[in-house]
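> Could you send the diguanylate cyclase prediction when you get a chance?

Sure thing. Input:
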Amino acid sequence: MSDSTDLSELHWLLAIVQSIDVGVVVLDREYRIDVWNTFMENRSGRLPEEARQKSFFELFPEVDEQWFRRKVENVATLGTPSFTIWEQRPYLLRFKNYQPITGLEDFMYQNTTLMPLKGLSGRIEQICLIIYDVTDVATNRRQLQAANQELQRLSSTDRLTGLFNRGHWEEMLRQDYARHCRYERNAALVMFDIDHFKKINDTYGHQAGDAVIQQTAELIRQCMRDADISGRYGGEEFVVLLPDTDCEGAMTFAERLRLTIEAHEVVYEGHSIRFTVSLGIADLSQPTSGYPQLIERADSALYMSKSAGRNRVTVYR
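Output:
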């Protein structure tokens, strides 16, 4: 092959390197920059003459130098490429994201490739760093994950109150019961409903009833611990699962909740609405055939509270 052909091919290669929409940086073995393509110029704001022969780490102080040196030395020693993906490391070089469609992200997500480059001697004398802009892919993936999480949240929560719906809290109860069977851990279930709720609806309207239910849910959240699981059983009836809690602890929680609700005032369209709740408790200290029986026992204790005059706590015996 003639020298003119070699020069022509080199010219083509340089033109391709300059025009492709990926970053190309060639480093010598002292981590000085030999090649700096147009992508790098545009994204970094540095001209090739400003970058060439400069230390890579001086130009990009955000790079974890110890980690990057280890990656490069492995490539040079093994003579094989190495890759990073945005899921593991969102970016190598912190470039701003200028894409209008994916403007939700401040920086460019990147995949990178490190390639060994052999000189005429056959030794690896340079390392080529290739940077791919994958912001679109990363943003779409993150938005999809967020949408899936929101769908999961909506499928497990009650729309009116934001508490867990019956299907979800029953599954949590089933899991807690399985832990009880395996590790003999205790748990208590508090079930309660709003006293004379039909009268509230009839007197003030269903929207006022909804406000009462929503504020009851908020009071539950204020009284419960982070580990507790609260849910809406249906209508004006609620449940709170108290993991690692005995009957006495459940009584303390239930009485505190009862008093908090009794003292609360719902103001709706100029009307002051006060109400009370009746509560029933069952725990796993007594032999139980399964978690559905715990629900039945808490419901039975709730019925006893209502039969005894409402606005009280009853424990299933």
